[in-house]
Design goal:
Its cofactor is heme. The chain is of the alpha+beta class. It has helices spanning 23-26, 30-41, 60-69, 71-74, 81-85, 100-114, 116-121, 123-142, 149-166, 179-193, 197-200, 212-237, 246-254, 263-293, 296-310, 325-337, 370-374, 390-393, 418-434, and strands at 4-5, 8-9, 44-49, 52-57, 76-77, 147-148, 347-348, 353-355, 358-360, 365-368, 436-439, 453-454, 460-461, 466-471.
Length: 472
């Protein structure tokens, strides 16, 4: 069904219905439906979702063209209308086009938070949060209580990020008072992740038929009120004590005679970091544990490696990660099968570009289906099996160099939080595995762990994983 345009032939794709285009083809799990369609139409596919021109990429070779060879053209974003309605696209590093403001925010954030030195310097803040996770799981052992792994990992992720950002804990295990912040972050994620008709039919954005823009406004106001409170408090206490966190560094830049960053920039940046960093990290931890609970030999292998490296009851340090090849392989294998963002964060074409003999049209949204390439039998042997061993021999890297495995994206828009995420995922898994054995609920067989997923802003387990820890 390739159509001809003035600038060339569009990539092949299913025939679009008038007005609705191919919207019906997407279903509840677009990553899976589009992976299936790409078997028919190829790794570069064109669809119309309502009026939104969409190009789906499902092979490492074409992903490399999009994210590396032509990344200048494809590094803008297709912004959800809910975020436009609250003006987030004008200030947010995640959604700004690749222009000066985006460069500035990315540079500041990288320099102030994600360099090796900065991350090493803030390690003690994170260590404390891992200790809390350890204590919570130990308490569940004593009470013979099941742990909701995704929930525990989400609380820990929120706290790891809030510690690095503001030296504050936002969420507590077993506490209702911390529910509000969690709910607000979930609320924002739900608004951004829900399919919104206003994105596909431009006229509808004036009517907000699903109320998504209205809910987004509500959650943005709530979260910004929380951030305002934290910023005001910090401004007051700055004279007497200095903190070693991102907020302190950003306020230094804000208080200069010619401020490098505004208070609004700071609030939108904080929001981006929470939304981009919390749910993604906890989802991977939950998927990894779900895979390992079905593979007792593999979880034993991880535990042995950990205990050989850090000793019984030793708390793992960030520097230990490089000495844990099997744990690293488990994390890579989890990213291959369960990428947190199955389409990355949608990119957008700034101009017509010819790829593989087809034209990718200007303004099309680009979905790089990393979920599909992770399960492609042309690239991976036994693609549906969880086999961390495959990563022990060849050194596939997660950092955007090896296009068959790019859960963090690649090129200029690669995940800015990758160095922190990498540490967080390994450390949380190590904390859960090193000192605890895990049992499923009475009567559940390990091969019956439900592995179905739920599409949203991130790819979550449809049924949360609950398991009983036993202290070793
Ligand atoms: C397992 C955890 C994570 C995964 C899988 C992940 C994945 C991604 C992906 C796929 C992108 C989009 C790349 C693209 O557009 O091609 C992204 C962007 C981003 N991520 Fe992450 N991320 C994770 C954790 C984090 C953390 C912990 C932070 C910070 C606290 C973070 C901050 C960001 C930011 C700021 C961007 C936007 C970059 C830009 O548009 O310039 N991420 N992430």
């Amino acid at each position: 069904n390739s159509k001809q345009r003035k600038s060339g032939k569009l990539p092949p794709g299913p025939y679009p219905f008038p007005i609705i285009g191919n919207i019906l083809e997407l279903g509840q799990k677009p990553h899976q439906s589009l992976a299936k369609l790409s078997k028919t139409y190829g790794p570069l596919m064109y669809l119309k979702i309502g009026y939104l021109e969409t190009v789906v990429v499902s092979s490492p070779e074409i992903a490399k063209d999009i994210l590396q060879k032509y990344d200048q053209v494809f590094s803008s974003r297709s912004v959800p209308s809910a975020l436009i309605s609250v003006g987030h696209h004008k200030l947010s590093m995640v959604w700004l086009p690749m222009e000066n403001q985006w460069r500035k925010l990315r540079r500041i954030c990288k320099e102030q938070m994600f360099t090796l030195q900065k991350l090493d310097a803030s390690w003690d803040l994170r260590q404390e949060k891992l200790q809390k996770l350890f204590e919570y799981v130990s308490q569940c052992c004593v009470n013979s209580q099941a742990v909701n792994i995704g929930e525990a990992a989400f609380i820990t992720s929120l706290n790891l990020i809030s510690a690095t950002l503001f030296s504050v804990d936002f969420a507590e295990f077993n506490s209702d008072s911390s529910q509000e912040f969690k709910d607000v972050v979930w609320g924002v994620m739900e608004c951004v992740g829900s399919p919104n008709f206003a994105d596909y039919f431009p006229l509808l954005k004036y009517f907000d038929p699903q109320g998504i823009s209205c809910r987004t406004k509500f959650y943005f106001e709530k979260i910004f009120a929380i951030f305002d409170g934290i910023i005001d408090e910090r401004l007051q206490s700055r004279g007497t004590s200095m903190k070693n966190d991102l907020l302190e560094a950003l306020l230094d830049l804000n208080q200069k005679q010619e401020p490098e960053i505004s208070r609004d920039d700071i609030k939108h940046l904080m929001l981006d970091l929470f939304v981009a960093g919390s749910d993604t990290t906890s989802a991977i931890v939950e998927w990894a544990m779900a895979e390992l609970l079905q593979n007792p030999k593999k979880i034993l292998k991880v535990r042995k490696e950990l205990r050989d490296a850090v000793g019984i009851n030793g708390l793992i340090q960030e520097l230990d990660i490089s000495r844990l090849p099997y744990l690293q392989a488990v994390v890579k294998e989890t990213f291959r099968l369960h990428p947190a963002f199955p389409f990355l964060v949608p990119h957008k074409a700034n101009a017509d570009v010819e790829i593989n003999g087809y034209v990718v049209p200007k303004n099309a949204q680009i979905l790089v289906n990393v979920w599909a390439s992770g399960r492609d039998s042309d690239t991976w042997s036994s693609p549906y099996s969880f086999m961390p061993e495959r990563f022990l021999d060849h050194k596939t890297d997660l950092r955007g160099q090896d296009f068959e495995l790019i859960p963090f994206g690649a090129g200029r828009r690669i995940c800015l939080g990758l160095p922190l995420a990498h540490r967080m995922v390994h450390l949380m898994l190590a904390t859960l595995i090193c000192n605890f054995e895990w049992k499923l609920e009475e009567g559940s067989k390990r091969e019956e762990v439900d592995m179905s997923d739920k599409f949203g802003l991130t790819l979550q387990k449809a049924i949360p994983l609950k398991a009983f820890p036993v202290k070793l």
